[in-house]
Structure formats: structure tokens, C-alpha cells
Amino acid sequence: MxxxxxxxxxxxxxxxxxxxxxxxDKFFGTDEWRQNTLREEKAAVKRRRWIDLYRRxxxxxxxxxxxxxxxxxxxxxxxxxxxNAQLYTLIFVSKHELGDKLWQGVLDYLKQRxxx
Length: 116
Fold this sequence. Notes:
Blueprint: E1 3-7, H1 9-17, H2 21-28, H3 34-37, H4 43-58, E2 76-80, E3 86-93, H5 97-112
Antiparallel strand pairs: 1-3, 2-3
């Protein structure tokens, strides 16, 4: 099964800012996210690490996982508000390379027009 996952980057950022770490642990199913992000000051780096961790956690289920080491292959859609703040990230995962090709077509289409 292919999945488009709405990764709530702004929601996790709010939980992180309020130091509600137990809820973030439940979201990820692990406290592994704490290793690199508690000391990190840059919000963009934190978000990237959270998404990479989420993707890696899908690997045991047979999904092909690409993390930030190969940024050009990430194939994500970042939704932003009118002030250009990141709201959420749409992440696509597939067990077949044809799914990746179809999702790339969607992203190419979205580049041509605004989603909202």
C-alpha cells in the first residue's frame, strides 16, 4: 500500500516548545528523537530530523525510505501559511518504484500551481 502521510510539523513544534516530550514520544513510538533535537537550535534542522526518524520507523514495514542524505529524492510537499511558516509536510511512502514515479508527477503539478 502506498501512503501519503500528513506529518504535523507545526503541531510537533508546539509540543516540543511546551516541553510535552511524552506526547512526542508517543507520536514517534520511541524517544529516539530526543538524541539529536533537544540540543539543536535551528527549527528547520529539528523538523528535518523528525521527518527522517519517522521515515526510518516505516522501514521495517517494507517501505522504501529516503532520508535527508539525498535531499533531491525526498519528494515531500511542504504546506505553508500566508506568513510562509511551515504547517505540515506531506510525505509519500511506497513499496514500489512506480508509486514514487506517480508521486513525483503530483509534485511537479503542484509546483505549477498553488495548493491553497
